[in-house]
Amino acid sequence: MRVNAERFRAAIEQTGKVGQVLQRRKQIADAKLLAQVAKAQRQLPVLQLASATAAAGGPWQGATPWGLWQEWGRYAVDSAQRSLLFLDTLRQRGNNYHAHEAAGRPPLLHFDYEMVMDAREFAPPLQPVNYALVRIVPPTGVYVDDARRPYVIIDPRAGHGPGIGGFKDDSQVGMALRAGHPVYFVIFFLDPQPGQTLPDVCAAEQAFVRKVRELHPDSPKPAILGNCQGGWAAMMMAAADPETAGPIVINGAPMSYWGGAWSEGEGDNPMRYSGGLLGGSWLSSLTADLGNGIFDGAHLVANFATLNPANALWDKYYNLYAKVDTEAGRFLEFERWWGGFFLMNKAEIEWIVQNLFVGNRLWTAPAGEGSQAFDLRDIRSPIILFASMGDNVTPPQQAFNWVADVYDSTDEIKAAGQVIVGLLHEDIGHLGIFVSGKVAKKEHAQIVSVMESIESLPPGLYAMRIDESRGSEGQPVYEVSFQERELEDLKAQLNRFERRDEKPFEAVAEVSQLNQLAYEKFAQPLVQALATETSAEALRRIHPMRLEQGVASDRNPLFAWLAPVAAAVRHARQAVAPDSPFKQAEQAASTLISAALDYARDLRDASSEAMFFQLYGVALPALRAEGSKAAPATLPQLPKQPRDLPVVREALAAIAEGGYPQALARAACLLSSKGEPLPLALVELKAQLVNDYRDLLPALSADEWHKIRGRQELICRYEPALALATLPQLLRAEADCARFLAVLRRLLADPRIGDGLASDAQREMVDRICALLPEPASAVSDVSDMIDISDAIESPVAAAARPVRQSAARSGVHSAPSTSRSNSSMTSQAGKRRKAST
């Protein structure tokens, strides 16, 4: 077997690079540890300067030996009392865990709900699954309009139970309810139905959305909100049934699991390497076989906890101990959700691991046996992607790279008529995307408020920006704007190494297939023969995550004495002052313990990363024999020349084809202002104008209109002169030409448009368009009053933002309730003016 020497030279260079990155990782970890040690030292000023501060009247009086002894006594009492209250809180957590388990682990929603559909009762052709659709009952004082767009929220089934999207009042559910929308929630039960698969779940979710449409026939299509695993589940559902879903919002969803960041900076995405280091998907199959065909979700929760051992082992418990008088309620509330572990069928976990975590082929995975793959390009609704730079479970690369995997270019997105909007948080963690009240009030509330506006954006890729300021009374005021982006720029921004760091994952997929086959041939028969339901249940009961939750409870005789003692302690509580030297020493010790755990994690992650790239990026490629068959490429190829793309050639070939709809869309493109942000107020104004002039616009669905607009934009981008010259050929019918000019006239007469808002280039373009049409250019009154036609037809120009934005800011148009009131009021007034002028 001959081995290519060139590969060995490349392997040596790559090994050096891996070593450099590892060394850099270690230096960063050392610097973080030293910073935490310095912080701990700063937490001990009183202990260091005790005698001096006593003489000078410092922050703590009594730095004499007797005073220190007295302070130690007070601290000892306080510490003992906190210890008892801490243990009692753990006891309450255990009681909550057992009570929740005894009740069948119902959804932990903050809101009341009523059952709509229970998929466990499905009959053929639908496969029964352990999912259900519930409708959220609005709380007292919250009024919902059934004619408004309903929201369907899909929670992740990744170890925990349902409820995180409505876990508190300030949540995705709460924001949608306050905006007056009906809200539905997709829940799931503890035990999967026999034989259910992920495609079966997808079919059930399609049935749920269709049911919501039946319940709200006069409303727009339901908006689908998917959290984490629920995000790619929502995308699968929308791809399989494009006609059903409305706008899709996916929050922290790992759509492109190989993505991440590999640089000489800090490494913050360690989870993506775990599949390769564990040998691929065989371990999940082994775990499911040991569970007698059932995979325990506690394993997934444990993997999540190991990402931050400092928090899992120390920080959250010390925070409870240090603030036990005020922190117990919040701790118990979150632990109710954190400690609910759910189950999956073997077929479900294998589909997830093999097709997503290892295979990275969500967009090519089969929908079922004998079925075609999910094609995400079939989705016709706008897609909103919400991710965070501080998320080490689903980094932005995993949330956004699928767009580059599915579409070759921005032109392809436009030709498909697709609208994709990205929203990026700076630092919130993975769970914070779903449970943070601040995120709910800002990001999720604004997503709800702009949903209808996003549907009216032209096809393309956009960045959504939320600017926060303070109102006259100190309340937060949010300004939303959209900036069109190029897919090519997004690739470069998120993937500084052009995704070369994803190539080793192809080797992981190969190794995983070999290991999976070896396990199925040699080990699986024995494991399945030895596993029983009794042994599987025993393994689930002794899982460390369950023992952590359930050992400390009233069921344990060792904790029977805690409840009355804790009650007495609360009655006689004696807390020391925060500036107590011993309390400060305690905090410093906690800082050092947490820093040590973080340091160990950083070294572990750095070593794992180096091992991964050394094995799959260096060793295996170097040892591959010449002539051996390489793994099939799953990453997108280098982009072609934009003009040579098939979608561009098809659009240019049809430059003279079409009618009135194509003419309107082309005029919008010719007059559009590129590169300028679109404030929300302008997008809303455009939506109102489209509604008011509906009698002059073609009767097309949003999907049809988006596709027409996208293709016309390609024509105007690559052949602007020919696009203008052939415009009259789209208006051959005299009635179409008359309608086209009527749109211009009515826009000019609309008092919402204002004067002097068009640029010189736009005025010139209007003159050129009118000169080409059969009717004389004088048919268009005072061209100086002309605005960007694309504002009225498709996307407002930024120049019009000045008067509209000021009005919107004064009236609070960006809050969800006031937005709806403002829109309906403006539309009503506009209708009266139009009737009067007519």
Can you describe what's shown?
The structure is a single chain. The chain is an alpha/beta fold and 838 residues long. Among the domains are: 113-256 and 362-502, Rossmann fold, CATH 3.40.50; 642-837, no CATH class. It contains 34 helices and 13 strands. The strands form two sheets. An eleven-stranded mixed β-sheet has the order 1-2-4-3-5-6-9-10-11-12-13, sandwiched between helices. It starts with a helix and ends with a helix. Mean pLDDT is 82; it is low at 50-57, 627-636 and 776-838.
Brief synopsis:
The chain has 34 helices and 13 strands. The strands form two sheets. It has an eleven-stranded mixed β-sheet, sandwiched between helices. α11 packs antiparallel against α24 (581-623), α14 (396-406) runs antiparallel to α19 (487-494) and α27 crosses α34.
Pairing-aware structural class of the strands and helices?
alpha/beta
User: What's the helical proportion of residues?
Assistant: 40-55%
- Tell me the name of the CATH class of the domain at 113-256 and 362-502: Alpha Beta
Q: How many alpha or pi helices?
A: 34
**In the CATH classification, which architecture of the domain at 113-256 and 362-502 applies?**
3-Layer(aba) Sandwich
The coarse overall form would be globular
Strand order of the largest sheet: 1-2-4-3-5-6-9-10-11-12-13
Largest sheet: 11 strands, mixed
Annotation, overall tally of beta strands: 13
Spell out the CATH superfamily of the domain at 113-256 and 362-502. Alpha/Beta hydrolase fold, catalytic domain
How far do the termini sit from each other? 86 Å
| Rg result | 31 Å
CATH topology of the domain at 113-256 and 362-502: Rossmann fold
**What percentage of the residues does DSSP assign to strands (E)?**
5-15%
